[in-house]
Specification:
The complex is a heterotrimer of chains A (about 260), B (about 325) and C (about 300). Chain A has about 260 residues and is an alpha/beta fold. Chain A is about 40% helix and about 25% strand. Chain A is built from ten helices and ten strands. The relative contact order of chain A is 0.17. By secondary structure, chain B is an all-alpha fold. Chain C has one domain: ABC transporter involved in vitamin B12 uptake, BtuC. In chain C, a hairpin with a 3-residue loop joins strand 2 (about 140) and strand 3. The longest helix of chain C is centred in the first third of the chain and has 33 residues, at about 1-35. At the A-B interface, helix 2, helix 3, helix 4, helix 5 and helix 6 of A face helix 1, helix 6, helix 7, helix 8 and helix 13 of B.
């Protein structure tokens, strides 16, 4: 719709998903250009997380196509999609709680590991080289997120806000082109939320990222997003710039209708 | 580089300690201070350590609840016994082939079943363990119900020691690497692990077949220590025994599995003449452990079941809170 | 002839299957409510059988009429086993209500072995004969098909118990509570349902049904021993999975189906593979349709 010559990174065409008889998403089409920061909003139960689950392969779309970086990824396994450049966080934090903060991030670097299982079992020099490289990269990532001093603590023991940030750090460690954030500010106070939004803006530049952000709270995304898609009851009801969305009667109705 | 040296120091320290244990026991055996009963207990300890450490890789580290480990042990026992009895294959190659065949069975069984989770997987592994037993029972070539006897006694303390050490070292090395971390991540949160680029199916099958490999070798050693094998010696009870060792030591802790195997084997041997008492004690220990000390003896170094519980509790919460969106 | 032979085996299969079905009900109900494979359930069946044995022996010695001996033995065995089931849940599983499912599963395996070997310690490992309560009568149908009074009794008892169970689950307050708790334990608690009591009731009913199966088993096979619960227990679990674990009609259908398949396999001359077939059925169901024939498909929410 925006007739820009920019390269399309993610192109979703008429993706649908139903569970049993229930249609959670019907014929959703959207596209994200390289470098954009896109918001995905909608009332509770609109299907936002379901869309994320389709994009990251948690379940395949019932119909429709999903193109990531010119490759069709609909129905691919999550780990493959992750390796093709889409990493996510979860609405309910899914850290490896009984592993250290450092190990959590190391997991995401595993896909880039160059030492095989056998060199590890026999402790060949390549194993040490590979492990040290992973540790170095993971520590660097933690430094960016100011988590380096907690590197050896159990992830489950960290504060809520830090757990959310660690999840983003872990997602970044996988080396994605597209970052999908599922309500990253959920449960945070206004100060923490503002810091987080600044951080998101910063990593976007620093890592040359394209970001798709689910947010429940409309006002929050207005400030940072280039464009916004609005889902309601499994259907895309609007898309456009924050100003357009703010004045879109359908969107207002969806939100007010829900609150009434 | 400093870290590397530290790691190496720890590694070589362990090796030296192990060699001392080896030498002392070797002396005790050759001088006759250890009699035949002690010797066979000692061999049994080695076999059980191999079984417990390899099961811990599957259950404790990767979090895939298998209760059919004796099945892999029996595959190894039968394969090695047939090789030495009917084909005159030397002992060590026979053991290695036995391990490999068991590992292949692990892959064959693992690929279809490892997508199941929790207790469904447990029951499927139990089913496979039983199927292996029933196949042996119905195969005349391997002696049917009466099994194989007259298996040459080829196990020596040196062989026992070396195989046990190899099992511990290789599995520990695996666990303490990026690959082992991938397995732990699967245990911690399978969905997140997969979303972070871990091929969860692959690593589950690797853990499963690596566990089966060493269980198969342990089975081969067992066959060549106790001369006789029959399908009955590898039933669910044996799988359960190995599980108790792992749980007693602390799920997820290799050191715990070693301790659990030693403690239970000694207890087992001491109560040999009172089989019911032994089993009552076994099961009582297990129940009390789960209620009062789910971490096991060495649980603090590994990961406790309580943490599992916490994780599952939060998972439940989040599922209900999330069902809205 | 072949048709008659087939029907004959079908009748035999239904008798075995009824026993599986009764045990499977306990598995399925407990799983439905606390998501636990109660490994000790097969051993409750064994205890039920032994209590039936001793009751029947003593009552018959006291000179009661056979039908009364049967009914009283059933009632005593079912009552005692229900209490046993409640105690097991209270002592071993309840402290682990918040623990992981794996911890509870391990405990259940522990309880199973505890019951078996306590049994061995008390009554010894050898099998004991079950007193013949009813005189076996043979009936011949359609020329050559044989049905005996025992088989009719088995089917009759199973049907009566199933009707009672259906009534309890769908028409009584406790049944309503059971359904509510199995749907959502926390919500049920918030709605004022006494969850602990409901779980106890589930264990009591499941154990009573297993005990009934135990008595019937003893009368049919005329032999009981402390390990008798292991295989029927596992098979009944297979039946529960086959029917769709958590589903009461599923347990019945699964039990009858498994019993029939097993009998047919045996009659074709592969009796030593019979148990293997049961486990193969289990694995195939788990792999291709884990929700079973009547189960709901549940998957983790992300």
């Amino acid at each position: 719709m925006t007739a820009s010559p920019a390269k399309v990174l993610l192109d979703v065409k008429e993706a649908s998903r139903s569970f049993g008889g229930l249609k959670a998403l019907s014929e959703v089409s959207l596209h994200i250009n390289k470098g954009e920061l896109i918001g995905l909003i909608g009332p509770n139960g609109a299907g936002k997380t379901t869309l994320f689950n389709l994009l990251t392969g948690v379940y395949p779309p019932s119909s429709g196509t999903i193109i990531l970086n010119d490759q069709s990824v609909g129905g691919m396994k999550p780990y493959k999609i992750n390796r093709m450049g889409a990493a996510r966080t979860f609405q309910n934090i899914r850290l490896f709680t009984a592993m250290t903060v450092l190990d959590n991030v190391k997991i995401a670097y595993h896909q880039h590991a160059k030492h095989s299982m056998f060199t590890s079992m026999l402790r060949l020099p390549k194993h040490f080289k590979g492990e040290d490289e992973i540790t170095r990269q993971a520590m660097e990532m933690l430094k960016i997120f100011n988590l380096a001093d907690q590197a050896h603590e159990y992830a489950g023991n960290m504060s809520y806000g830090n757990q959310r940030r660690l999840e983003i750090a872990r997602a970044l460690a996988a080396g994605p082109k597209l970052l999908l954030l599922d309500e990253p500010a959920a449960g945070m106070n206004p100060n923490e939320t503002r810091d987080l939004m600044n951080l998101i803006a910063w990593i976007r530049k620093e890592f040359d990222l394209t970001i798709l952000l689910i947010e429940h709270d409309m006002s929050l995304v207005m400030g940072v997003c280039d464009r916004i898609y609005v889902l309601d009851r499994g259907m895309l009801i609007a898309n456009g710039t924050p100003v357009e969305i703010r004045n879109n009667p359908k969107v207002i109705e969806a939100y007010l209708g829900q609150e009434a | 580089m400093k870290r590397l040296n530290q790691l190496n120091k720890r590694f070589w320290g362990g090796i030296v300690l192990a060699l001392i244990v080896y030498a002392v026991i070797q002396i005790l055996l050759t001088t006759g201070i250890f009699d035949d009963v002690t010797r066979s207990t000692l061999f049994l300890i080695c076999i059980n350590i191999m079984l417990a450490v390899s099961l811990n890789l599957i259950n404790g580290i990767t979090g895939q609840f298998s209760i059919g480990h004796a099945g892999f042990m029996s595959v190894g026992a039968y394969v090695s016994a047939i090789l030495t009895l009917n084909f005159d294959v030397p002992f060590i190659p026979a053991l290695i082939i036995a391990g490999i065949v068991a590992a292949l069975c692990g892959i064959l069984i693992g690929i279809p079943t490892l997508r199941l989770n929790g207790d469904y997987l447990a029951i499927a592994t139990l089913g496979f363990g039983e199927i292996i037993r029933i196949v042996m029972l119905n195969t005349e070539y391997v002696g049917g119900a009466s099994g194989l006897s007259g298996i040459p006694s080829k196990s020596t303390w040196t062989i026992m020691f070396v195989f046990t050490l190899i099992t511990i070292v290789i599995i520990t090395n695996f666990i303490r690497s990026s690959h082992g971390r991938a397995c732990i991540a699967i245990r911690e949160n399978e969905i997140a692990a997969e979303a972070m680029g871990i091929n969860t199916t692959l690593y589950k099958v690797i853990a499963f077949s690596l566990g089966a490999l060493f269980a198969g070798m342990a089975g081969g050693l067992s066959a060549h220590t106790f001369y006789v094998i029959n399908p009955g010696s590898f039933n669910f009870l044996k799988s359960f025994e190995i599980l108790v060792m792992v749980v007693l030591g602390g799920l997820g802790s290799t050191a715990g599995s070693v301790v659990g195997a030693i403690v239970l084997t000694v207890l087992f041997t001491a109560l040999q003449d009172f089989p019911e008492v032994r089993m009552i004690l076994y099961s009582a220990i297990l129940i009390l452990m789960m209620i009062f000390r789910p971490k096991g003896l060495l649980g603090s170094t590994g990961i406790s079941l309580k943490k599992f519980a916490k994780k599952e509790a939060t998972k439940r919460d989040s599922i209900s809170s999330e069902s809205a969106s | 002839m072949a048709m008659e032979y087939f029907i004959q085996q079908l009748i035999n299969g239904i008798s075995v299957g009824s026993i599986y079905a009764l045990i499977a009900l306990g598995y399925t109900m407990v799983y439905g409510i606390i998501k636990l494979i109660n490994f000790a359930h097969g051993d409750v069946f064994m205890v039920g059988s032994f209590i039936g044995l001793y009751s029947a022996r003593n009552l018959a010695n006291a000179g009661l009429p056979p039908v009364l001996v049967l009914l009283l033995s059933l009632v005593i065995s079912m009552t005692v086993s229900a209490l046993l089931g409640i105690s097991i849940e209270r002592l071993a599983y309840k402290p682990l209500r918040k623990a992981s499912r794996i911890a509870v599963l391990i405990t259940a395996i522990g309880v199973s072995f505890l019951l078996e070997y306590t049994g061995v310690a008390i009554v010894g490992p050898q099998a004991q004969g079950f007193p013949e309560i009813l005189n076996k009568k043979q009936y011949t149908l359609f020329g050559s098909i044989q049905v005996d009074s025992n088989q009719i009794m088995i089917l009759g008892t199973t049907i009566v118990l199933m009707i009672i169970l259906q009534f309890i689950v769908h028409r009584t307050k406790i049944g309503k509570a059971m359904r509510a708790v199995s749907y959502d334990m926390e919500a049920a608690r918030l709605m004022g349902i006494n969850v602990d009591r409901t779980i106890s009731a589930t264990f009591a009913i499941g154990s009573a049904l297993a005990a009934a199966a135990g008595v019937i088993f003893g009368m049919t096979y005329n032999s009981v021993d402390p390990m008798m619960g292991v295989l029927p227990g596992l098979k009944a679990f297979v039946a529960a999975v086959l029917g769709g674990i958590g589903s009461i009609p599923g347990a019945l259908v699964g039990g009858l189906l498994l019993g029939t398949v097993e009998t047919e396999v045996s009659s074709l001359g592969y009796s030593s593979w019979r148990d293997g077939v049961a486990f193969a059925v289990l694995i195939l169901i788990l792999i291709f349709k884990p929700s079973g024939l009547f189960g709901k498909n549940v998957r983790e929410k992300v």
